[in-house]
Amino acid sequence: MMNNRNIVTYFGGVLFGFGLAYSGMTKQEIVLSFLRLDDLGLIFVIGGAAVITFLAINVVPRFMKQPILGGVFKPRINVLTRNTLIGAAIFGVGWGISGQCPGSAVASLGTGNWPVIIGIAFMYLGAYLRGRFIKG
Amino acid sequence: MFPLGIEPYLIGGVIIGLGVSLIYILTGLHATQSSFFTTTLSWFSKLPHFQDKRNLEERDWRLALAIGVVTGAIIYTFTISPLGLWVTKVDLWRLALGGLLIGFGTRLSNGCTSGHGISGLASLSTTSLYAVITFMGFGIITAHLLELVWVV
């Protein structure tokens, strides 16, 4: 369990969780105010994170052959299928109902936002039903 | 448009991006979030979907990532958070129903706000761009409809 890879993802996760809490994403009310178009700040959370990550994925590999601890640099490209869009639509409805998303829900456990435990339990149920009833 | 200013959002987003980038530069892994639910279920379900080789390979580091996310939020809460502990007032049924759709939908779509929104867009994936437009659109429509019906 305590190999280098897991230690790195742990500390990267610490930054991820700190950033989610700092940006208010652990407050479902703030996410809902974005989706009601009252406060568009969430665009800067995704945008800021995506721009930094863009540099890591597209610029850093020009100066380094491979990741420092081994492995390969490979952008995250998936094939577009019907399920990509159907799933995104279903996720969007759940996002609009509750103001939760997977990362911010996990981070909410660290801000004392205990009701989100219910949300996470149901996320597990949803992920289970997807694996149980949908092929692929 | 920005009643709370843009600074907390932008700074928080950059910190998230640094975390994702740190992991990518050191390991080549994409630190995305929603797969965590599928990979942890591999410890509890014998279904082939969860026992997939990739899930078994990824479940350790994804658990470490999730524990890190909780740790980072705890650090924020007990250091610079102006409010300290904070609890949502969103109804439990909304957290539950929303959670169910989020778990099902993100795993069907192979990504969420982090997988498609951050890592996918940063990879210039058109698949992720379409996914982001779709979940943003449905999220905005749903939030507006609920506001009309319940006046939250």
The radius of gyration over CA of chain B amounts to 17 Å
Helical residue percent of chain A? Answer: 55-70%
- The sequence of SSEs of chain B as H and E is HHHHHH
Gross geometry of chain A = globular
The major β-sheet of chain A equals:
none
Report the end-to-end length of chain A measured between terminal Cα atoms: 29 Å
Keywords:
heterodimer, A: 136 residues, mainly alpha, 6 helices, 0% strand, globular, B: 152 residues, 69% helix
Structure notes:
Chain A is mainly α and 136 residues long. Chain A is 63% helix and 0% strand. Chain A has helices at residues 4-22, 28-35, 42-58, 82-98, 102-108, 116-133. In chain A, α1 packs across α5 and α5 (102-108) runs antiparallel to α6. Chain B is built from six helices and no strands. In chain B, α2 packs across α3 (53-78) and α5 (115-122) runs antiparallel to α6. The model of chain B has no long low-confidence stretch (mean pLDDT 97). The chains are: A mainly alpha (136), B mainly alpha (152). Chains A and B meet through α1, α2, α3, α4 and α5 of A and α1, α2, α3, α4 and α5 of B.
Spell out the blueprint of helices and strands:
The complex is a heterodimer of chains A (136) and B (152).
Chain A: H1 4-22, H2 28-35, H3 42-58, H4 82-98, H5 102-108, H6 116-133
Chain B: H1 7-27, H2 35-41, H3 53-78, H4 92-109, H5 115-122, H6 126-150
Task: Summarize this entry quickly.
By secondary structure, chain A is mainly α.
